[in-house]
Amino acid sequence: MQTNIAARTALVLETNNLRGGAGAAAAAASLHSVIAMLARQSVPLTALAQIVVTHDGLSDACRDEVLRLAGRDVDFVRIDAATGYYDAKNAGFAATDPHRCDHVVFADTDCVPAPAWLAELLAPLAGDAAPAVVVGRTSYAANVVGAALTTLDFMYFPSPLRAGATRNFYANNVVFRRDVFAEYNYQSLSGVYRAHCQVLGLHLQEAGVPLHYAPLAHTEHRLPDTRLEAAKLRWMRGQDTYGLTPHLVRAYLPASLQWLGRSGPLGPLCVLASRLYFSMRALNRQELPPLRGARWLAGVACIAAFSAIDMLGALVRGCGWRTSGDRHADADAQALSYHRR
């Protein structure tokens, strides 16, 4: 049955997160590594209806190696260098064939998929009451820093729409029924880095579209290559909270508290304080190896330290100070470096 689903499914990969770092050679090496891992999935790439890779200038040699590793045809979609991460995903979706592809999987080239990731992501689609969206589980590496960051960046909250559903998803690990993504897709959010999928999750919940959660469909997101870029990521995540807060306030707070969405830094800081509480509670509850003793204390300290940077970024943005993260209308086009093996 999974093979039948795969035969009507497209896989869209973007290379935006490979733009940073040592240049074209590093991007090509990282892309080849991920394609090789995907080719070893329990559901092979050859079983899929289509594979789309968006890029802003892969060499002929790089593309030839992708084809060799994939063992099949791949559609390479050229995009402008200024195209953002979510616009690249929209462009990849637009390149999928509506006559062959009923479902579209979105994955990232800076993630390491588990061997059965694709099979687990597609499995819920085989039933008669197949969900319109299936969300996999994303985490960072299974160490102290990775466990702490996972509680901040990759939280999943139960949905009121259906048992086994989640309120939110991440764009690196999800499959949509074609008509659902065509209707909603990723909308433009000025000056926001990577909160678009959170906003789309809120829109889908408002529309009554449940997001089925498949925790065994696991992929590991790489950490930035340098400490400086890791700090920059935290800063930009914090600034994202400013743009995300009005959407959260509209979705979850009563009319009497809607003013928090227009409260400068106050609303975002309240959101981050709430997230800090849930992150502390989530440590050792996210299907990663548990931290004990001194490692648990180190994990708590990491959550607090990373949250402090997030809060500083939100405070600066909320006060209207202009920083590198919000000077551009398309902040999500900025590239960090994710080539660490």
From TrEMBL:
Residues of the Glycosyltransferase 2-like domain: 31-183
Record keywords: Glycosyltransferase, Transferase
Keyword Transferase included in the entry's annotation: yes
Keyword Aminoacyl-tRNA synthetase: no
Enzyme class: transferase
MF (Gene Ontology): glycosyltransferase activity
EC numbers: 2.4.-.-
Entry-linked Gene3D superfamilies: Spore Coat Polysaccharide Biosynthesis Protein SpsA, Chain A
Protein name (record): Glycosyltransferase
Species in which this protein is naturally found: Janthinobacterium fluminis
Lineage: Bacteria, Pseudomonadati, Pseudomonadota, Betaproteobacteria, Burkholderiales
